[in-house]
Each structure stands twice: as structure tokens, then as C-alpha cells.
Write a structure and sequence with these properties.
Layout: H1 18-26, E1 30-32, E2 38-41, E3 46-49, H2 53-67, E4 76-81, E5 90-96, E6 104-111, H3 117-134, E7 138-143, E8 146-151, E9 164-165, H4 194-209, H5 216-236, H6 253-270, H7 283-293, H8 303-318, H9 329-339, E10 347-349, H10 356-372, H11 375-388, E11 390-394, H12 397-409, E12 417-419, H13 426-432, E13 443-446, E14 453-455, H14 466-470, E15 476-478, H15 479-490, E16 497-503, H16 504-508, H17 513-522, E17 523-530, E18 545-552, E19 565-568, E20 572-574, E21 580-584, H18 585-598
Parallel strand pairs: 6-7, 10-11, 10-13, 11-12, 13-16, 17-19
Antiparallel strand pairs: 1-2, 2-3, 4-5, 5-6, 7-8, 8-9, 14-15, 16-18, 17-18, 20-21
Helix pairs in contact: 1-2, 4-5, 4-7, 4-8, 5-6, 5-7, 5-12, 6-7, 9-10, 9-18, 10-11, 15-17
Length: about 600
């Protein structure tokens, strides 16, 4: 059994920049109009439109300079005219060294969160032009959580790397070697909101993608490696120590690369099943990604926030390209609710894709634990379940890594995810991971691949399946048919249950009667729910499908005639494009199924 260690519950902390905007309003540094459409900087009596995304960044950073960096409010100014520049060119924020505002000290260029790397570089050139014209000592570009600070004085006007410093000096002091330290009230990492986290991940992907130099999925893989490093660094850094996943004062891209690479190789040696190959990125690219992610506290950001953010980011890049590896959340939720997995159950998805069924099951156990136990007990309760009761198999190695990263982001369960073919010989799967045994699992939830054909000339395992060539010699068989048999083999006799997505042809085609006979011979059919044609269309699949739920019979068990719950869902909470549909028939079907469960023989359909 895997060992886990309890971590104290995370304290509730406001996410920046809202924290600074709230503090600025409370302390009268800034004032908002009644409808929040305008913001006034009270010390300088200047008002701007707060509808502008850049103004939100400026207002937050303005307050941060006063509150966090201890600069006098009376020495800050906005929209400062820059001499020897075009008349329209003004510096967003300037800190002065004197009360008369004659000696510029720091010049800041504010941009909205989510700008491209090219736009960020353009902003750097803009702030350097302003800082040099104003003869300021320091310059900074702030674009949401991505920010870079430069020591302008004493360096050549063209220098853009050796003069990078970790952070803005506090109250005219020296620049610190590092900006982020674990446990510091003002120097620790920042808890973020969902949209901020999504933008940071998207910026990182765009940086790695490099406008098409890498395939989007390959870029995703490289971002995942760096995210893996980031998460490991947060957990392994000791209290009061500086984090390694950050850019220090006067550090070059090569120095940052070497430090990140050392984190990666150490983490890889300790957990080699997540990533096996090296980071394949130029040091300058890694440097830029660190800029995007270094300030964010993934560990303390709410589990639901980072989970949903990662899933949305993930779907944006794989949906359409690898849509077969994703099952819509509404269908996953329904299947989990139907089978009601418990903390004692061993759960398997033999075609786990990005991990949707497994994560939803983990979330169900987590919520039940949190509503029934104190915080420490609840944490141990669901973490033990995640580490010891959740299992997945994924044939695509890249998607298996995505699933593991998804698990790690959700605070774990990745140790029992393996990358192999679920249909290969069982003893070969057992050799990879000793827990993958026949007649072993309590619940299987899965959406297996449809339509592919396994030929006896290509795979040596076809004749090992009753539905392959064992009972009747066949030259080929559909993957979904073989998955049915494999799922039945994996679950426990008498009590094991399966929830599976199947193409309607399995249930209706006369040529596949032998498959239905096999299911009925080995299982009690609990329910069959017909899904609309659009169920998987926005994920790149258009096969008409149904959800089938069965219980594996015990040895020599005879069920005789029994009722089967059947329903048709015409609306499932989203339309053919993936947009939300306010109607979801699955909710009503679940209510009816619960009635059927209690009194199956006397149940009357609505």
C-alpha cells in the first residue's frame, strides 16, 4: 500500500490582483465609480475607464507598489509624458525618487493578461525607450502574472538578459536575488482564479508551440513536463527557502534551464512512469515559460479551480485532434451516479483517455468524505482512495501522460495509470502492474474506442477472446466487442459492475446477436440508456451510442427472466457544438432509475 502524508488544510487567501484592488479601495488609494466603470487614483486625481483590461492590471499593480513594495503614494504618477518620444507616448506608471517628481526611478508598462510573447517583447522595447528617455534606474513590464523587471542603469541600452532582476526593489533598496520564498507572507506564490490559470497555461503553450514549430500536442507535452517540474518544486521546497522554479537576478536563460532540468531529472528518477524522455526545449523558451508560471501557487490554488482549468486547457488542444480520448462531463457524471462507487471499491477504466471517469469518481469520494469527516480524516480518506483504488489503462502513451498529469493536478491517483493495450494478453498486462488481474475490480467505467478492427494477422491475442476466435474462428473483430469481453473478465464475479459506452449496433444489429448473447450469458443487464446522435459530435465522433450498465454473474448463477431499465435521452445538457443546453434528460432518468432499483418488478415508467 502506498504511504501518504497528511498536509494541513490550505488557508483561504484572496487571489491577486483582486486582493490589491480591494486593499486599494479600503485604504483610499483608488476609488471606483458606483458602476465600477471608472477608477480614480486619488493622490494624483486622475480618472480612467476601468473597462479597459490594461487599466485593471495598472490599478492592481499601482496598489501593489504602495502596499507590498512600500513606495510613497505621493511619489507615484500615471500617464507620465516621456520627453524625446512621440507626443502620444506616455509611461503607464512612474515611481520618482523625490516628492517633487523630478527624478524618475522606475518606469512600468502595463499590458492585459494573456498577450503573446511577441507583444510582450514589444512592450519591453517600449518600456526601455521610456525608461532611457526618462533616465530611470529600473523598468518593468507587467501583463497579469507575467512580469519582467530590468536594471536599466549601468547596462548597454540594447541589453535584455543580463540586466533582468528577480523583482522590483522594495522602497529604493537593492534587488533581491530571488523573489519567491516558501511560507513568506509577502514573498510566497500567488493563489489564482480559474481564468487566470487558464491564461497562464495558454500563454505557456503558445510560447512552447512557437507559432507552429512544434505540433500543438507535442507542445502540450513539453508544457506538461515543465508543469510537472513546477508542482514538484512547490512540494519539495522547504519552508523559508527560495523556490527553484523562478528567475533570479541577473540569471541567464542557460542558468534557469539548468536548474529546471535538474528538477525534472530528479522528479523523473523518482516517478519515471509519468515522463520518460528529456525536456526538448531551447533554454530561452523554458525561460519564457518560467516567467508565465513562476508566481502561481498551484499547490494552494483550490482543487476544483486548477482541475477545471487544466481540463479546459487540455480539451482546447485535443478536442477534434484526439477527441476519442475525451468523454463529455455530463455523461461521465451520469454514469458515476448510476453505479455509486464507494471508497472501498476498486475502480478501473481500461480505456481511460484523459481520466474523466476516474477523476469524477475520485471527486465523488472526496466530497462524501468532506461532508462526513473532519478535515484531516477527510483528506486521508480520499487520498488513500485516490492512491490505492483508482486504476486506468491507456494505449496512447502521450494521452496516458496527460491522464497522469491530470491526476497530479487534482492532487493524485496517477500511480496506477499504465500505458499499454488493454486487449493484449492478460499476463502481459499483469507483468506491467501486478494489480491488473482478472475477476478483481468492483466497478468499471469506460468509453472504449469504436470502429477499429483487430485482425488475427496483426495481433496475436485475438484467439484468446471468446468473442475473437476462441469459440468461432474469426479473421478479425471490432475493438468494442473485444472490450466488452475484457471488461467482463476484469470485474469480480457476482458483484462486479460495468458502465460502458457502446455503439448502438451492438444492441440492434442482427449480425451481432452473438455479442448480446455473450453479455446476457455472463451478466445481468441493469440498464440501457440511448443517447442522442450529437452526444460525441463536438469531440469528433458521430456514432450513435448508448450507455449500458451490467452486473457480472456469479459462477453458475441463473437469473431467469428479470426487468431491465431502458430510457431514451434526447437532451443531455449540451448541443452538437458543445454549448450548454438547459435541458438534461439524464437528470430525470437518474431519478427514475433510483425508483426502478428499489422495486424493479413493480416499477412503472413515466
Amino acid at each position: 500500500m502506498n504511504k501518504i502524508t497528511y498536509k494541513p488544510p490550505k488557508e483561504k487567501v484572496k487571489a491577486e490582483p483582486e486582493e490589491f484592488l480591494s486593499a486599494g479601495e479600503d485604504k483610499k488609494y483608488i476609488t471606483f465609480s458606483r458602476d465600477k466603470s471608472k477608477v480614480t487614483y486619488n493622490a494624483i486625481d486622475k480618472t480612467y475607464s476601468f473597462k479597459n483590461p490594461e487599466e485593471k492590471v495598472r490599478a492592481s499593480f499601482y496598489v501593489e507598489l504602495i502596499e507590498k513594495y512600500n513606495y510613497p503614494e505621493n511619489r507615484l504618477d500615471t500617464e507620465v509624458v516621456v520627453p524625446r518620444r512621440t507626443p502620444s507616448d506616455k509611461a503607464d506608471i512612474v515611481i520618482f525618487e523625490d516628492d517633487e517628481k523630478k527624478k524618475p526611478y522606475l518606469v512600468v508598462e502595463c499590458k492585459k493578461d494573456g498577450i503573446t510573447d511577441a507583444e510582450f517583447k514589444q512592450a519591453i522595447e517600449q518600456v526601455f525607450g521610456n525608461a532611457n528617455s526618462l533616465r530611470a534606474k529600473f523598468a518593468a513590464v507587467v501583463a497579469g502574472h507575467t512580469r519582467t523587471v530590468f536594471n536599466v542603469a549601468g547596462f548597454k541600452p540594447s541589453e535584455r538578459e543580463k540586466n533582468v532582476i528577480s523583482d522590483i526593489p522594495r522602497k529604493y533598496g537593492a534587488a533581491p536575488k530571488y523573489r519567491f520564498f516558501k511560507g513568506g507572507s509577502e514573498t510566497d506564490l500567488t493563489i489564482v482564479l480559474k481564468e487566470e490559470l487558464i491564461r497562464a497555461l495558454e500563454k505557456s503553450h503558445d510560447t512552447v508551440w512557437q507559432g507552429g514549430k512544434l505540433a500543438p500536442t507535442a507542445a502540450f507535452d513539453e508544457v506538461s513536463k515543465l508543469l510537472f517540474c513546477k508542482l514538484r518544486d512547490e512540494k519539495s521546497t522547504k519552508r523559508r527557502d527560495s523556490y527553484k522554479f523562478q528567475i533570479g537576478t541577473h540569471e541567464t536563460a542557460e542558468e534557469v534551464y539548468e536548474r529546471i532540468n535538474s528538477i525534472y531529472h530528479k522528479a523523473k528518477s523518482e516517478d519515471s512512469e509519468v515522463f520518460k524522455d528529456d525536456i526538448r526545449l531551447d533554454p530561452k523558451v523554458i525561460y519564457a515559460v518560467v516567467e508565465h508560471l513562476q508566481s502561481i501557487n498551484f499547490n494552494k490554488t483550490e482543487l476544483d479551480t486548477k482541475g477545471v482549468a487544466f481540463e479546459r486547457f487540455m480539451e482546447d488542444f485535443f478536442k477534434g485532434k484526439m477527441g476519442q480520448f475525451f468523454t463529455p462531463r455530463e455523461i461521465i457524471n451520469f454514469c458515476v451516479k448510476i453505479l455509486k462507487p464507494d471508497r472501498s471499491d476498486l475502480i478501473l477504466d481500461p480505456a481511460c483517455g484523459s481520466g474523466g471517469f476516474l477523476l469524477n469518481t475520485m471527486d465523488k469520494v472526496k466530497k462524501e468524505a468532506e461532508s462526513n469527516y473532519d478535515e484531516r480524516e477527510a483528506w486521508e480518506h480520499w487520498h488513500k482512495f485516490a492512491m490505492n483504488n483508482i486504476f486506468g489503462i491507456e494505449i496512447n502513451d502521450q494521452i496516458a501522460r496527460v491522464c497522469k498529469m491530470n491526476m497530479i493536478i487534482h492532487d493524485d491517483g496517477h500511480t496506477n495509470i499504465i500505458s499499454t493495450d488493454s486487449l493484449r494478453n492478460v499476463d502481459e498486462i499483469f507483468d506491467i502492474h501486478r494489480s491488473f488481474k482478472m475477476d478483481y475490480f468492483d466497478i468499471i467505467l469506460t468509453n472504449p474506442p469504436f470502429g477499429a478492427t483487430v485482425k488475427s494477422t496483426e495481433k496475436d491475442y485475438l484467439d484468446k477472446f471468446d468473442l475473437g476466435a476462441k469459440i468461432k474462428k474469426r479473421k478479425s473483430q471490432k475493438t468494442e466487442v473485444l472490450f466488452i469481453e475484457r471488461c467482463i473478465n476484469f470485474v469480480k464475479p457476482k458483484t462486479g459492475k460495468i458502465g460502458i459506452v457502446l455503439p448502438d449496433g451492438i444492441l440492434t444489429n442482427s449480425s451481432l446477436q452473438y455479442v448480446r448473447d455473450f453479455i446476457m450469458e455472463n451478466c445481468q443487464i441493469l440498464a440501457a440508456i440511448s443517447l442522442p446522435q450529437l452526444a460525441f459530435s463536438h469531440f469528433g465522433a458521430g456514432v450513435k451510442s448508448s450507455l449500458v450498465f451490467v452486473r457480472k454473474k456469479g459462477k453458475d448463477e441463473k437469473t431467469g427472466n428479470y426487468p431491465i431499465f431502458m430510457a431514451i435521452a434526447e437532451h443531455i445538457g449540451y448541443d452538437a457544438t458543445g454549448r450548454k443546453d438547459p435541458i438534461n434528460d439524464l437528470d430525470k432518468i437518474l431519478v427514475e432509475y433510483r425508483k426502478f432499483e428499489k422495486k424493479p418488478k413493480s416499477y412503472e415508467s413515466c
